[in-house]
Design brief:
mainly alpha
């Protein structure tokens, strides 16, 4: 079977034993392997929660605009010279992304590591979503 997450965040289990035709974030799990299916679902829930936490702080359109501006500044810096004002702006963009993303990514990574260590006896009780105390 294949476990994957749709663009809208739904976690789906489908029949199949190949990733061909499935989204980028997909995992093949042997039929009947409930533990690894549940682990994949818990990890995808952590990814979904991280995505939602980031989007709650900064919408996708704003992320695109900030990324495009940072790319403009980095490109200009590589090809010519940027002004002190542009350097300050680029540093502020970097600090913003680091401050927003690092705590969420760190929590997501830690939760996924905990999920990997779960057993058949402990996996059902584990919350990888908003109720997990590791989330900032």
């Amino acid at each position: 079977m294949v476990v994957y997450m749709e663009e809208d965040g739904r976690i789906v289990t489908a029949s199949g034993n190949s990733l061909s035709g499935f989204p980028y974030h997909s995992v093949v799990v042997a039929d009947g392997d409930d533990l690894n299916r549940k682990k994949a679902e818990k990890k995808f829930l952590a990814k979904k929660t991280a995505r939602e936490k980031i989007l709650a702080q900064i919408p996708q359109w704003k992320q695109h605009n900030l990324t495009a501006r940072a790319l403009e500044l980095v490109r200009k810096e590589l090809l010519t010279t940027i002004t002190p004002t542009e350097t300050t702006e680029l540093n502020a963009l970097n600090d913003f992304w680091t401050g927003l993303l690092c705590p969420i990514r760190t929590a997501s990574d830690a939760i996924e590591a905990e999920v990997e260590a779960l057993t058949a006896e402990t996996i059902d009780a584990y919350n990888s979503g908003y109720g997990n105390p590791l989330w900032p």
